[in-house]
């Protein structure tokens, strides 16, 4: 059968047409044949079919038939198609060897220029590309990397270079976006979801992804890669083959015979340092241990100049650290500094990550990325990738060294699959040499500290010494949220899978490791730390837990407070009786950390202020009957602008000039997008608006899914997840407890018990139908903030992209807000029209049923049902307030009564135990309004006074009486509580207003009555004096709060 | 004489608790039911380690508060976290998830996320493996029969 296909192939190739024209016929012929061995074309026909003819050759001229072919090849797991396309791809490379060699020369030249940053030489080099070579992926990528900070020019340049319609329509924007925003490989899919139009079939999307990163391991089959390679420049085809060979070796420690053969032929006919290294490694099994990286190898094999090679070898050595000097290029200086410092400078890190992600496809980029991996500068990845980086460094520096052995996933090379590489004892010898060469982590004051730690951890991992591993982590790795720990968390996950949390429960070192895990990856085992600390927390108050953390971990206790003691965690751990107390408790715990250690990298001032604002807002919102749709828009705009800065930059940089490329201005694209709530909208807009549309979509998605005040969260937590049910349930409960003349208490309770479920079911049904965002399965939902196609185009066109990210996001959010505001009155009307009547209908039905059953006295049923109807109807009309669109800055002031309730909630635990209660002696003050900016101060004031009263009052009568009082020209509140055996005493304590948040935390003597006086002064906006009077049976505190006609 | 089977129903809503209880009561006379209405109560009950079956709600009140229902905090994926904790502490008991919702906003991760019911089931399966005996969408047609059948299989095993 193979022979049959060979004949067909030869017949097809005999005409004057090239592979590009004949590829579909070849595919059909192959599809109709059964191939059991590889197919060879012969040199003559290869030359005829595969030689590039510069006059009519276009790279990457895909059409719809290609997607069908590639779709079939994606499933070629058995290698059937590879027997056809791999030899063809190899022949294609070899037939055009001259073009391949030409680009390898440029690849090496770029490698050196990347580290010497000679811009002029780089420009000359780019100008020297042959017309055919200019259509290579390599050339596109060089352009993209070189102009990554100048997207305007990049778009213009690429438009000239990209010859096919498909490339311009599909590839241009992803490539530009990739270059300008440098997504990580892991983030590639995320970013593609914004830039692919959605019109593509799966095979086309896979092709796009492959063209952006053809070195991802295990992404596609060899046949798929070779098919694409045959439509690329032959140099790209060669690199695609080498990438595949390299990936297979890193994953499996060996190559198929077919790949061995391909590698040999590539190296023989289009030799490159890379193919040479792979031959030595994969075929000749040659690997040597050196004391240090061999600069000479880098110089002679890869063409680096002597000085650069020496410096880079110094980076990759234990005992020959590079010396930074002022004549170095920025890149070279940055990588040297990175090796010389324990933690990198942010600018160096950003520069090198950007360079590495931009130049990943050439030798220089591969060297830079592999060095970054070896220094634990990038997040840990699958072992295959880390092994690849490690083996690449072996190639660059001519062998293994202790430095390389202490790199990520070194242990993988000790697997039996790699035994042939090492020969007898080779790997053990390398390990022993590394044991000797590496000092303890504490002996290093440069980046080698992390390699020493990781080497120790690997030793513990290999022996499954969990306790030793945990001790090393606690001893040698500090909490630094901005930096990576380099830890292989997959090992810890395996420990948890095998032993669950036993090694960690209540163990300080175990808790510390779980803290690092939570700081580095909040999604993974997010509840592990909270569970493991339970034995420590048991029986303690929140304050005592913070004490324990500070005593155990010193300044790193701050990280526990910041990352572990969040509001829900405080409640989960039983450290607060309710949400209000948990919110206040978190603020207090953070303040304690600041008082103890000052602001730190873990808890900087800006972060604390954000927490302070957010928690205060939540605290006050949770204490009032506010509109459920009240949203802190300013905070949302700030978050969105920061989060989408990269998208904005791209949108801004791609905004065409007046005389911009015509195709960008006129061509339209179709973008069927599926929002996270399941709604699909097909947008059609001018191509140039792609990044702007992506920005709008991302912002709308944010508003839908924001964890604190996104629309889905509001509809879910403030409505569907029980708020309405609870209100109705409370209304019915009140009826069951209220006196109804002529009805026995048991009757009331029985009747209400019988009707509660149907009533709540009615509420559920309404919520499930209405309180959602509109999507296919919720057509009757009341909310929709997703732009319709014409709205999207109009909004995208109108955005003032040149005026900065904040302005643009403000406009988008303004659109969302207006949309939501417009929907609230309708939602309110629908709620009023449907909920009371639905409840009434269910009540009537239940009433009829109860009367039929004759289990209750008819008169009692009538009376209780009437009361229930009235209560539910009243509640429903009260609840329409939830739909009010309270403008952010026009929130009605809180009342004193609401603040007292919030403060009381802090002491809920003492209600039963100590009879705690605050009592207002003048109900009028209950409704006095407190200005928004003073609400938090009043809350703090009441908290301080109530807490002090609890500390000093009689054990079982912890009541605080509150009474308005006037003394002289000052009015205020008097607080009284009982004491036992008090002495006669009167003191006056003066207080001055706080001037700043820092003063609230740090002012000397800031506790007890002086603190109360300071808070009162801040409320009154002038210095005041608090008067305390102690008597044998009582304690009285007068707190002046306002001048007559003043603030309260 | 058959051994008494103990079933823990973790459910904060009274109506749903009654419905679930009703659906299971018909199964067998030798079943003892216990209710945990908050995460706090659930954690305490689970620690007793005596359960033949746990019926688990997903969206849960964290703890009871005298300030009213919900004042003790509400966790929209509290049930999932209970399952996670059971995994960590190796409290091995068969579990059936019964939820009235199909979307669960959560604050997981840096960005937060809206988890679909399938996400929640997938995560529970990852953690619990074969201990997750099944799940039921409360309110779907025949939900009570499905629950009863699932529970019957577990208790018979």
Distance between the termini of chain B: 17 Å
User: How many DSSP H or I helices of chain B?
Assistant: 5
The amount of beta strand of chain B, in percent, is 15-25%
- Arrangement of strands in the largest sheet of chain A: 4-6-7-10-9-8
- Biggest pleated sheet of chain A: 6 strands, mixed
Helix content of chain A: 55-70%
Q: Briefly note the structural class of the backbone of chain A.
A: alpha+beta
Helix content of chain B: 25-40%
User: DSSP helix count of chain A?
Assistant: 51
Radius of gyration of chain B: 15 Å
Which geometry of chain B do the CA atoms define? globular
Mean pLDDT of chain B: 87
Largest interface by residue count?
A-B, 51 and 45 residues
* Secondary-structure class of chain B: alpha/beta
Range of strand content of chain A = 5-15%
Our measurement of the CA-to-CA distance between the termini of chain A, rounded to an integer number of angstroms, reads: 95 Å
**Unreliable segments of chain B (pLDDT under 50, ≥5 consecutive)?**
none
**Shape, principal axes of CA atoms of chain A:** globular
Question: Low-confidence parts of chain A, pLDDT < 50 over ≥5 residues?
Answer: 658-665
Counting DSSP E segments of at least 2 residues, the number of strands of chain B comes to 9
Question: What does this 3D model show about the protein?
Answer:
The complex is a heterodimer of chains A (1048) and B (157). Helices cover 60% and strands 6% of the residues of chain A. Chain A is α+β, with helices and mostly antiparallel strands and 1048 residues long. In chain A, strand 6 and strand 7 form a beta hairpin. Chain A is globular, with a radius of gyration of 36 Å. Chain A starts with a helix and ends in a 5-residue tail after the last strand. Chain B is α/β, with parallel strands linked by helices. Chain B is globular. The model of chain B has no long low-confidence stretch (mean pLDDT 87). Chains A and B meet through helix 30, helix 34, helix 35, helix 41 and helix 42 of A and helix 1, strand 5, helix 3 and strand 7 of B.
């Amino acid at each position: 059968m193979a022979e049959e296909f060979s004949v067909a192939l030869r017949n097809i190739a005999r005409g004057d047409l090239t592979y590009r024209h004949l590829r579909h016929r070849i595919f059909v012929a192959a599809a109709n044949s059964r191939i059991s061995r590889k197919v060879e074309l012969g040199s003559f026909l290869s030359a005829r079919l595969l030689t590039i003819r510069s006059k009519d050759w276009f790279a990457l001229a895909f059409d719809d038939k290609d997607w069908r072919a590639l779709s079939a090849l994606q499933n070629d797991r058995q290698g059937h198609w590879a027997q056809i396309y791999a030899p063809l791809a190899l022949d294609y490379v070899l037939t055009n060897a001259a073009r391949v060699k030409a680009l390898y020369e440029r690849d090496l030249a770029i490698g050196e220029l990347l580290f010497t940053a000679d811009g002029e030489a780089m420009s000359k080099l780019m100008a020297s590309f042959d017309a055919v070579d200019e259509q290579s992926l390599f050339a596109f990528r060089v352009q993209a990397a070189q102009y990554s900070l100048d997207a305007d020019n990049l778009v213009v340049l690429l438009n000239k270079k990209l010859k096919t319609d498909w490339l311009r329509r599909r590839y241009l924007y992803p490539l530009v976006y990739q270059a300008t925003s440098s997504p990580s490989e892991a983030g590639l899919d995320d970013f593609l979801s914004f830039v692919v139009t959605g019109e593509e079939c799966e095979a086309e999307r896979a092709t796009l992804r492959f063209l952006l990163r053809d070195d991802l391991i295990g992404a596609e089959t060899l046949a798929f890669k070779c098919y694409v390679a045959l439509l690329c420049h032959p140099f790209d085809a060669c690199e695609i083959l080498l990438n595949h060979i390299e990936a297979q070796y890193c994953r499996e420690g060996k190559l198929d015979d077919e790949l061995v053969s391909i590698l040999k032929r590539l190296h023989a006919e289009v030799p490159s340092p890379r193919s040479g290294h792979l031959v030595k490694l994969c075929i000749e099994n040659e690997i040597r241990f050196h004391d240090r990286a061999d600069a000479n190898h880098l110089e002679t094999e890869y063409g680096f100049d002597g000085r650069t090679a020496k410096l880079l070898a110094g980076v990759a050595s234990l005992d020959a650290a590079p010396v930074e000097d002022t004549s170095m290029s920025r890149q070279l200086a940055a990588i040297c500094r990175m090796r010389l410092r324990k933690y990198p400078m942010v600018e160096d890190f950003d520069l090198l990550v950007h360079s590495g992600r931009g130049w990943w496809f050439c030798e220089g980029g591969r060297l830079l990325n592999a060095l970054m991996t070896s220094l634990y500068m990038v997040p840990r990845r699958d072992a295959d990738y880390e092994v690849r980086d490690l083996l690449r460094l072996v190639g660059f520096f001519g062998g293994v060294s202790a430095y390389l052995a202490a790199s990520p996933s070194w242990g993988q090379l000790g697997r039996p699959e790699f035994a042939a590489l090492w020969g007898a004892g080779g790997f053990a010898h390398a390990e022993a040499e590394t044991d000797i060469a590496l000092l303890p982590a504490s002996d290093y004051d440069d980046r080698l500290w992390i390699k020493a730690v990781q080497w120790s951890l690997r030793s513990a991992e290999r022996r499954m010494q969990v306790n030793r591993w945990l001790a090393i982590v606690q001893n040698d790795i500090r909490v630094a949220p901005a930096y990576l720990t380099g830890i292989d968390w997959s090992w810890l996950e395996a420990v948890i899978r095998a032993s669950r949390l036993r090694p960690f429960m209540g163990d300080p070192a175990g808790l510390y490791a779980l803290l690092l895990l939570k700081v580095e990856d909040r999604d993974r085992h997010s509840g592990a730390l909270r569970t493991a600390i339970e034995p420590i927390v048991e029986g303690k108050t929140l304050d005592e837990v913070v004490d324990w953390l500070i005593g155990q971990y010193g300044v790193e206790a701050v990280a526990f407070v910041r990352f572990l003691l969040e509001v829900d965690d405080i409640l989960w751990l039983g450290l607060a009786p309710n949400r209000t107390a948990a919110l206040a408790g978190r603020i207090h715990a953070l303040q304690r950390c600041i008082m103890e250690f000052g602001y730190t990298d873990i808890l900087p001032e800006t972060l604390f202020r954000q927490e302070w604002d957010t928690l205060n807002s939540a605290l006050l919102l949770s204490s009032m009957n506010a509109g459920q749709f009240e949203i802190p828009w300013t905070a949302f705009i700030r978050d969105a602008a920061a989060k989408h800065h990269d998208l904005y930059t791209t949108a801004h940089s791609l905004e065409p000039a007046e005389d911009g490329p015509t195709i960008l201005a006129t061509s339209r694209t179709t973008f069927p997008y599926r929002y996270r709530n399941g709604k699909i909208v097909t947008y059609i807009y001018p191509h140039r608006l792609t990044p702007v549309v992506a920005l709008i979509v991302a912002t709308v998605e944010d508003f839908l899914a924001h964890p604190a005040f996104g629309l889905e969260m509001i509809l879910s937590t403030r409505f569907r997840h029980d708020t309405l049910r609870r209100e109705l349930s409370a209304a019915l409960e009140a009826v069951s407890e209220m006196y109804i003349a002529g009805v026995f208490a048991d009757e009331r309770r029985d009747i209400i018990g019988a009707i509660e479920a149907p009533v709540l079911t009615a509420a559920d049904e309404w919520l499930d139908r209405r309180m959602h965002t509109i999507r296919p399965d919720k057509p009757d939902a009341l909310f929709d903030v997703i732009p319709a196609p014409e709205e999207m185009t109009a909004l995208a066109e109108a955005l003032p992209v040149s005026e900065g990210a904040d302005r643009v996001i403000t406009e988008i959010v303004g659109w969302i807000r207006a949309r939501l505001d417009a929907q609230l009155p309708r939602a309110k009307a629908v709620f009023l029209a449907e909920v009371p009547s639905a409840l009434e209908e269910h009540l009537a039905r239940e009433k009829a049923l109860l009367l039929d059953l004759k289990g209750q006295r008819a008169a009692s049923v009538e009376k209780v049902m009437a009361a229930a109807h009235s209560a539910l109807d009243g509640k429903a009309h009260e609840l329409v307030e939830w739909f009010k669109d309270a403008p952010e800055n026009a929130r009605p002031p809180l009342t004193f009564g609401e603040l007292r309730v919030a403060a009381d909630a802090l002491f809920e635990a003492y209600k039963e135990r100590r009879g705690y209660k605050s009592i207002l002696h003048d109900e009028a003050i209950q409704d006095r309004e407190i200005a928004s900016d003073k609400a938090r101060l009043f809350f703090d004031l009441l908290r301080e006074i109530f807490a002090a009263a609890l500390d000093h009052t009689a054990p079982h009568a912890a009541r605080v009486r509150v009474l308005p009082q006037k003394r002289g020209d000052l009015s205020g509140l008097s607080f009284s509580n009982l004491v036992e055996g008090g002495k006669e005493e009167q003191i006056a304590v003066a207080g001055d207003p706080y001037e700043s948040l820092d003063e609230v935390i740090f002012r000397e003597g800031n506790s007890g009555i002086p603190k109360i006086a300071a808070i009162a002064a801040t409320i009154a906006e002038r210095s005041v004096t608090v008067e305390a009077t102690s008597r044998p049976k009582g304690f009285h505190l007068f707190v002046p709060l306002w001048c007559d006609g003043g603030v309260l | 004489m058959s051994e008494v089977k103990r079933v823990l129903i973790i459910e904060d809503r009274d109506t749903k608790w009654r419905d679930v209880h009703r659906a299971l009561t018909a199964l067998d006379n030798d079943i003892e039911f216990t209710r945990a209405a908050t995460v706090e109560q659930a954690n305490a009950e689970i620690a007793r380690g005596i359960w033949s079956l746990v019926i688990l709600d997903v969206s849960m009140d964290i703890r009871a508060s005298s300030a009213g229902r919900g004042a003790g905090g509400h966790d929209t994926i509290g049930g999932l976290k209970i399952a996670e904790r059971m995994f960590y502490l190796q409290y091995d008991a068969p579990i059936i998830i019964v939820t009235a919702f199909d979307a669960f906003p959560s604050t997981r991760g840096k960005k937060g996320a809206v988890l679909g019911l399938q996400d929640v089931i997938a995560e529970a399966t990852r953690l619990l493996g074969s201990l997750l005996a099944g799940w039921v969408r409360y309110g779907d047609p025949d939900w009570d029969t499905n629950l009863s059948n699932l529970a019957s299989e577990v208790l018979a095993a």
